[in-house]
Write a structure and sequence with these properties.
5 helices; signal; about 20% strand; DUF3558 domain-containing protein; DUF3558
Length: about 200
């Protein structure tokens, strides 16, 4: 996590949750609904050791500890939890003050196809499609309706927690940080912390 600070900012990480719908609020990109008996689809990595996220679907803001949030966004950061958000149970964190910084996490319930829903739309719906290193042993991919890494500093990482489920971890860098570091690296590191916390609670 300390490396994340160095990558994005010497002080606060000025982040906003990735949102293809509304800036500042984590929102999953719309996906189609592949047949759930056909997952994982062709080329989609299988989740050999599924992660039980049941508890965190009820308390998504516990996916990051208070200390981790402070490290990311500074003291006084607040959390907004939405258990009935359209994409699934969601938590968005915002720092104190007037910045637009947030980090967003969604326990995605758009469909029951997991990463297959994203893989099937690579190059069409999702112009940004980039498999990334596993997150604590779980397959992951960076994706978006368009590639906004260098223009807006936005990136979302989807982590397959089972063949049928995934978690979205999304960030957007501040204007001061856009182009200075890869937002997908930051999102990946936050995703690692989230998965570690979920595993640690089991």
């Amino acid at each position: 996590m300390r490396r994340l600070i160095v990558l994005l900012s010497a002080s606060l990480l000025v982040l906003t949750a990735c949102s293809d719908v509304k800036a500042g609020m984590a929102s999953p990109a719309t996906t189609s609904s592949p047949q759930t008996d056909a997952v994982p689809g062709p080329g989609v990595p299988k989740v050999d050791s599924p992660l039980d996220t049941t508890r965190f679907k009820q308390t998504p803001c516990e996916a990051l500890t208070g200390e981790e949030v402070t490290t990311l966004l500074g003291s006084g950061a607040t959390a907004k939890e939405e258990l009935s958000a359209p994409g699934g149970p969601t938590c968005n964190w915002q720092p104190a003050g007037t910045t637009q910084a947030t980090v967003g996490i969604i326990f995605n319930k758009v469909n029951q196809a997991g990463l297959t829903a994203i893989y099937e739309q690579q190059g069409s719906t999702f112009r940004l499609f980039m498999p990334v290193a596993p997150v604590e042993g779980l397959p992951a991919v960076a994706y978006g309706l368009k590639d906004e890494r260098t223009t807006s500093g936005r990136c979302a990482i989807a982590v397959g927690t089972s063949d049928h489920e995934m978690i979205d971890v999304s960030i957007t860098q501040s204007e001061a940080n856009v182009g200075k570091s890869d937002p997908c690296t930051a999102a990946h590191e936050v995703a690692e912390e989230v998965v570690k916390n979920i595993k640690g609670a089991q």
